[in-house]
Amino acid sequence: MQALRTILVVDDEPAIVHVVALKLGQCGFRVLTAWNGAIALELARANEVDLIISDFQMPILDGMQLAAALRESTRTAQIPIIILTARGHLLGDDWESAPNVHQVISKPFSPRELAALVERVLHCSSSAIPSKESA
User: Fold this and answer.
1) For the chain, domain boundaries
2) Residue 85 burial (CB < 10 Å; 0-12/13-18/19+)?
3) CA geometry: angle at 23 spanning 20 and 28, to 5°?
4) Spatial separation of the C-alpha atoms in residues 84 and 86, rounded to whole Å
5) pLDDT of residue 100
6) Which of the following CATH numbers is that of domain 6-125: 3.30.465.60, 3.90.1170.20, 3.40.50.2300, 1.20.58.60?
7) pLDDT at 103
8) Per DSSP, what are the bridge partners of residue 105?
9) Kind and range of the H or E run holding 44
10) Residues 41-89 pLDDT 10s
């Protein structure tokens, strides 16, 4: 039997965490949740995480700071990250230079489409980390 893939969902809006975790749980994923980037970093270091869905703007560590902190360790550097944001204009194109950030999704988003994206990223990363063009 194949082990469940683990997704870490981090957002300071509890409703978003709830909706995303519920949808991913229905798709058969094990879901860990965090309310800020610092807690997410601790969870990613302590668990075998296959993918992270992170809000861009959060207290303590924002999504891009979390991505940078994860790149500092060989154990967490290759975890693919999907960034959620209501303010994409603040993010600009900076995310394109972060090798572990594979996609930026604007809020509001479709939980079904997000789950499909998670499946695609994990399918690609089972053999190799996907390029931004294939994400």
Assistant:
1) 6-125
2) buried
3) 120
4) 7
5) 87
6) 3.40.50.2300
7) 87
8) 84
9) helix 37-46
10) 999 999 999 999 999 999 899 999 999 999 999 999 999 999 998 875 5
